[in-house]
Amino acid sequence: MQRTCSRCSKTIAGLAKSYVECGRLFHPGCVKAYLGTKSAGGCCRVQLSAMPLTPREAHGSQPVDHRSPAMQSAVDGVPRGPLQSTEALLQSILTRIEEADTKSAARLNDLDKKFTAVFERSDKKISAFIDRQQAVNVDFAQKLDQIPNILKIVEGHGERIAVLEAQSARLLSSQHDDRGLSAASRVSGASEIIISGIPSSITDASGVLVESVFCALGVSHLVSDVLETRDVVGRDTSVVSAVASGSVSAGNIPSGTSGRKRSVIVAFKSREIRDHILKIMRSRRRLLVSDVFSVNVPGNVYVNELLPTHAYNLLRQTRIKARQTSFKHVWSRDGRIFVRKDHGQPPISIASEADLEQLH
């Protein structure tokens, strides 16, 4: 039931003054003002004389507590009626809220620590990446600065390579030429003979001299197989005798000083023609100057294989050694030198000066 103040007619929510005799209710602050009015009855005035007129007077110097009984009970712990269970529920709710706040704060603190750790690791990684990138940038800048020098070096290498390629091309060309000359020389050397012992008084051309020798040997038809004839510096009789054919024995080689003689080199189309003429010369054994030329001059004309310089010198040494050791036959064939002491004995090949030491 709603309580109303008899003085101000307002609802009473807190403490109220109650007078049993008349049943009126007043706000504590409205009691004194009511007693001053004419409507206050005698009972009210009698009672006012026996009690304080205001809540402050009723409690001495203590202020009037205008709080509700439920709030007073929650503060001072004194039970104040049926509102105690509500206060306990609110207190429980507040406690749970505080516990939830504590847990939330702990979780937030834990999450903050985790995020902080993650951020720190990320920051370290980013810092390391930045450092590496800066180092890469520095290295890249240095390489960019080196590019002009590298280009100069490459350009220099290109020029050197071009020079080397040109030199290589010239060397290859020279090598091909040398191979061609070497092949021609081998072919020429393998198909050449030397005609020596021709008296210097005979001044005919080399081609005419060759025709005269071929006629004397009975092979004049082979003149057409001659590729080239050329004169060489004449050798004395002893030198010419040193290159005589195998049909001439070492003991019959003239050793006098009959003067300078002419020699002619003859190149044939093939080695077979050369070998054929040498075979005819060996079978004839000796070809006199008077048999070849219409002159009354003593001496022999020699037809032999044209030897390289080293083989020719070795042949001369072999001739000298043969006379000293009584070897009667010395000859050359296909660039190789042979000696034989007498007919019927096996030939001995002479390939070097060391082989000459074996002759005794």
Describe the fold and architecture.
- By secondary structure, the protein is an alpha+beta fold.
- The protein has 4 domains: 1-46; 98-172; 189-234 and 260-306, RRM (RNA recognition motif) domain (Alpha-Beta Plaits, 2-Layer Sandwich); 307-359, no CATH class.
- The chain has helices at residues 31-35, 42-49, 55-58, 69-76, 84-190, 206-217, 237-242, 271-284, 289-292, 309-325, 353-356, and strands spanning 17-18, 25-26, 192-199, 226-232, 261-268, 302-305, 329-333, 336-340, 348-350.
- The strands form 3 sheets. The protein has a 4-stranded antiparallel β-sheet. It has a 3-stranded antiparallel β-sheet with strand order 7-8-9.
CATH structural class of the largest domain: Alpha Beta
Largest sheet: 4 strands, antiparallel
Radius of gyration: 74 Å
Task: State the helical fraction.
Answer: 40-55%
The domain count comes to 4
Mean pLDDT, to the nearest integer, reads: 77
CATH topology of the largest domain: Alpha-Beta Plaits
Secondary-structure element string: EEHHHHHEHEHEHHEHEEEH
